[in-house]
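Hi W., the calcium ion complex you wanted:
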Amino acid sequence: MCPVVETAERSIVVIEDDANIADLVNLYLREAGFRVLLAGTGIRGLDLIEQHRPSLAVLDIGLPDIDGFEVCRRIRATTMLPVLFLTARDGEIDRVLGLELGADDYVTKPFSPRELVARVKAILRRGAAAPATESTSFDIGDGITIDVARREVSCGGTTVALATKEFDLLAFFARNQGIALARQQLIEGVWGADWYGDDRTVDVHVRQLRKKVGDDLPLATVWGVGYRLG
Ligand code: CA
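Structure:
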């Protein structure tokens, strides 16, 4: 088994224009052993990500140049880098949970820096635990294959671009084909038992999987329970 990379070697890009919040996040992440790179604008943050290949990005939404959603879109265009959003309003949470962005998690302002650090560690733990030791690929329907090791999904020979959690969710379904899975099981299996979100997260991601993979995805809604693949 591959050794888990030590926390001390990990760097995190924090994109936040509010200097007080940035300082606080910086302080706590450093205390937790991370190397922190701060950016006050979205463009600067994208530059840092390209130059330093961090393990995770903490991303504010209201930024002076391009907003956090656009930053996330640009990150996702080239990498699966985990993203943790800092959100200020309910309307933002909906968009964060939503869809094409594929955020890995979020905290709502005002947040406890300790909670933020805990979330960051949880995301990195999940990432470290998942792919390296696995080499399985699954056929999950008519011409649909998921290769967990390569983190690739193909449909009729064409690669389907999925966000991090969408992929993790599909992989979890693939490992449990034919079994009706409750939303809570899915949350624990994919987001982890320490995740605070609600069941709606699952529904949003399922909707997105159906849209991206297409009608051939044999993912059924099991009323009163959750979902079943195959
Ligand atoms: Ca801001």
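The chain has two domains: 11-129, 137-229.

W.
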